[in-house]
Amino acid sequence: MLADGSNFRPFGKIADGVLEEGHSRTAILDFVLGQLPMWRDRSDRPARTSETTLTSQLCAHLNSAARKSSGLDCLQFRVEEADETESSRKIDLVAAPAGGSLIVEGRSYVDFDSILPIECKRLPVPAGSGRDPREYVATSTGMSGGIQRYKAGKHGAAHGQAGLIAYVQAKNFDHWFSEIETWIKDLHAARSPGWSMADLLVKQALDAAAGMAVHNSVHSRIKLPAIHIRHMWIKMNS
Fold first, then answer.
1. Closest by CA position to 40, among listed 62, 15, 8, 13
2. Which pTM was predicted?
3. Whole-number Å distance between alpha carbons of 138 and 100
4. What are 4-40's pLDDT values in tens digits?
5. What is the count of structural domains for the chain?
6. Rounded to 5 degrees, what are φ and ψ at 184?
7. Mean pLDDT lowest for which of 9-13, 183-187, 196-200, 216-220?
């Protein structure tokens, strides 16, 4: 659980076989949010820094936690899952039914289907050939930005709600919030197609004791409904 006195509050609940209308995906995001500090602080978790390894570790932890949580054992998590509409692209982490079918807001999903996409990024982005320090938001070439992929429909085109996890490995939350705000404002000022001040993140909650911050954002998409993103930031110890 998050630390006592946390500003985080759950928004949804999950019932056996049915995810409650209007709250289902929010309930999954609540679960992931609550598990993030537990995963980070596990004494048996090998210390790693790479995004791929961290996400694989998190996926394993979420699956174990879901199986032991009443009403959540209907879920499984998978890594590097092909996007439903852009099959050549991989989603970092998805929530899906764990066997059988699951009704989500009136639609039936089976274990081959993704209920919720979640992207994961490191802050700061590691230096390297072809890497862009603004990768959490958008990249100057290609389509590797976390928010950018969602906005362009390259990730999550079949979804109206998504998650974006930041593994914060240096600096503090205020620093990264300011940086990301600047990057989005710069895209707007440069008249980059589709970017506006409406893409800015909105602060939701901070739990300094747990090393967690949560922000929300809503992004318009061409020929697609807007997508709502919950940004879940965790301060990594190692």
1. 62
2. 0.90
3. 37
4. 334 444 434 444 455 554 458 999 999 999 999 999 9
5. 1
6. -70, -40
7. 9-13
Does some domain include residue 7?
Answer: no
Pairing of strands 161-168, 90-97: unpaired
Residue 194 inside a domain? The answer is: yes
User: At residue 100, does pLDDT exceed 90?
Assistant: no
Q: Is residue 156 part of a domain?
A: yes
Q: Which two tokens stand for residue 86?
A: 């852009």
43 φ, ψ (degrees, to nearest 5) = -70, -20
CA–CA separation, 60 and 102 (whole Å): 21
CB-based contact 149:162 (threshold 8 Å)? no
Token readout for 212 is 């967690």
CA–CA separation, 166 and 39 (whole Å): 14
The SS3 call for residue 184 is: helix
Identify the domain containing residue 73 by its residue range.
14-235
Q: Is 24 or 235 the better-scoring residue by pLDDT?
A: 235
Are residues 116 and 27 in contact, defined by beta-carbon separation less than 8 angstroms? Answer: no
pLDDT digits 0-9 by tens, 137-174: 999 988 889 999 999 999 999 999 999 999 999 999 99
CA dist., res. 41 & res. 23, Å (int): 28
3 pLDDT more than 60: no
Q: In whole angstroms, how far apart are CA 2 and each of 71, 119, 165, 170, 203?
A: 19, 22, 16, 21, 18
